[in-house]
Specification:
Blueprint lengths: L2 H8 L1 E12 L5 E2 L7 E6 L4 E7 L16 H9 L1 E12 L2 E9 L8 E9 L2 E5 L4 E3 L2 E11 L2
Antiparallel strand pairs: 1-2, 1-3, 1-10, 3-4, 4-5, 5-6, 6-7, 7-8, 8-10, 9-10
C-alpha cells in the first residue's frame, strides 16, 4: 500500500484486539498486558497520533484521588499502562513512524518508534520492524487493532 493510501486508511480510532510478543530464539509467546488488553490508538488527518494500552482490572486506589495514591498503588497503575502521543509520518510503503512528544515511559520522549502496518478489512496490524528486547528476550511484537465504531 502506498504512503498516501495508508495515511488515508489510518485516520480515525482503533481499539486493541491483541498484543503478542514472540521470542526469536524459542518461540515463547508473551502477552505484555494480558490476554485481553484494552487500548485505543488514534490518527488525525493533520498528522497527530495517540496510543494508550492497559491491562484490564488494574487495582483501584484505596482513596479515590490520584494525588493520594500510595507509592505501591502508583507503581501498579503505571506497570499496567502504556501511553504516548505525538506526530506520525509514513515515509514509505507500510512504514509508520511515531514521533513521541509525550509518554508515560520517559525514555521514549523525543524518540521515533517505527511500526510496520498491515491492513485486512477493519483490522490494522502494527508490528515491530525488527525484534526488540521484551520481557528479557529478543521478540517480535505484533499489535492487532480493530476500527472503533
Amino acid at each position: 500500500m502506498n504512503p498516501d493510501e495508508l495515511r488515508k486508511d489510518l485516520v480515525g480510532a482503533w481499539r486493541l484486539v491483541s498484543y503478542r510478543a514472540t521470542a526469536v530464539e524459542d518461540g515463547e509467546v508473551v502477552e505484555p498486558f494480558g490476554p485481553r488488553p484494552q487500548g485505543l490508538i488514534t490518527y488525525t488527518p493533520g498528522g497527530h497520533m495517540s496510543a494508550q494500552i492497559m491491562r484490564p482490572r488494574r487495582p483501584l486506589f484505596r482513596h479515590g484521588r490520584l494525588e493520594q495514591g500510595l507509592p505501591e498503588e502508583l507503581t501498579a497503575a503505571a506497570g499496567g499502562y502504556l501511553a504516548y502521543a505525538g506526530t506520525y509520518e509514513i515515509p514509505e510503503d507500510d512504514l509508520v513512524l511515531h514521533h513521541v512528544e509525550l509518554s508515560l515511559f520517559p525514555n521514549w520522549v523525543g524518540t521515533t518508534l517505527a511500526r510496520v502496518a498491515g491492513r485486512d478489512g477493519d483490522r490494522l496490524t502494527l508490528s515491530l520492524p525488527e525484534p526488540a528486547l521484551i520481557w528479557g528476550a529478543r521478540r517480535t511484537g505484533v499489535l492487532v487493532w480493530e476500527r472503533a465504531r
